[in-house]
From TrEMBL:
SUPFAM superfamilies in UniProt: S-adenosyl-L-methionine-dependent methyltransferases
Subcellular location: Cytoplasm
Chain's role: Catalyzes the methyl esterification of L-isoaspartyl residues in peptides and proteins that result from spontaneous decomposition of normal L-aspartyl and L-asparaginyl residues. It plays a role in the repair and/or degradation of damaged proteins.
Catalytically driven reaction(s): [protein]-L-isoaspartate + S-adenosyl-L-methionine = [protein]-L-isoaspartate alpha-methyl ester + S-adenosyl-L-homocysteine
Catalytic residue list: 66
Name of the protein in its database record: Protein-L-isoaspartate O-methyltransferase
GO molecular-function terms, A-Z: protein-L-isoaspartate (D-aspartate) O-methyltransferase activity
Main enzyme class: transferase
Keywords, ordered alphabetically: Cytoplasm, Methyltransferase, S-adenosyl-L-methionine, Transferase
UniProt-listed Pfam families: PCMT
């Protein structure tokens, strides 16, 4: 690579982190994790050169890799600790799971498209992210065998928080997810499980692809 090209990359990374901060991603651990994971590894084809822009981009199976600032805001809202076991529903490109893997002890990530799980696993292996387990299946049922979880992040929108996911959250645990109809603006919410029940907090408007029941055939 020429010196100029290297400078370009460094500059793009600086701009990327600056954009995150200006959109409210201020938590140092989250920023550090996002600095360490190259989004360019998770975007293929004609959109690859837009990987450092703060926008969602198309990935395989008609899905999208989320906007980096939204990934950052969800990650910081989840307040992941280094001993936590995290469940992510909606692997997609694997980008969010990769960032969570920098903060947590172990990350389970589930997608209904087998192809996306396979491709994300390829990137995890290439980046030597060994604490991620990617599973294909319907994530709206969670992962009863691995439950309960310290943190749950859902990256597809349901009308309400799925009951099985609430049930698989530890007491003291946090779940961050978008809720609302898929064709309108949804709300990003944070759910805390207390001894006595659940506490819900609305964070900001977002737009995600829908959480779809059942597994896909690709
Ligand atoms: N977190 C991803 C973006 C996710 S896009 C990233 O960082 O790139 C939303 C994903 O949710 C899609 O890949 C879609 O296939 C998946 N999804 C939708 N409904 C699902 C369900 N019931 N179970 C598991 N995955 C689901």
């Amino acid at each position: 690579m020429s010196e100029g090209a290297e400078e370009d990359l460094a500059e793009r990374k600086m701009r990327f982190l600056f954009a995150l901060r200006s959109k409210g991603v201020t938590d140092a651990r989250t920023l550090h994790a996002m600095e360490g994971i190259d989004r360019g590894q998770f975007v293929r084809g004609i959109f690859a050169d837009r990987a450092y822009e703060d926008m969602p981009l198309p990935i395989a199976c008609g899905q999208t890799i989320s906007q980096p600032s939204v990934v950052g805001l969800m990650t910081q809202a989840a307040d992941v600790g280094s001993r936590d076991t995290v469940l992510e529903i909606g692997t997609g490109s694997g980008y969010q799971a990769a960032i969570l893997s920098q903060l947590a002890r172990r990350v389970y990530t589930v997608d209904r498209h087998r192809r996306l799980v396979r491709e994300a696993e390829g990137v995890f292996t290439a980046l030597r992210l060994t604490n991620i387990v990617a599973i294909s299946g319907d994530g709206s049922h969670g992962l009863p065998d691995q439950a309960p979880f310290d943190r749950i992040i859902v990256t597809a929108a349901a009308e309400d928080p799925p009951g099985p996911l609430l049930a698989q959250l530890k007491i003291g645990g946090i779940m961050v997810l978008p809720v609302g109809q898929s064709d309108t603006v949804q709300s990003l919410i944070r759910v805390r499980r207390l001894e006595t029940g659940f506490d819900y907090e609305e964070l900001r408007p977002v737009r995600f692809v829908p959480l779809v029941e059942g597994v896909a055939n690709d």
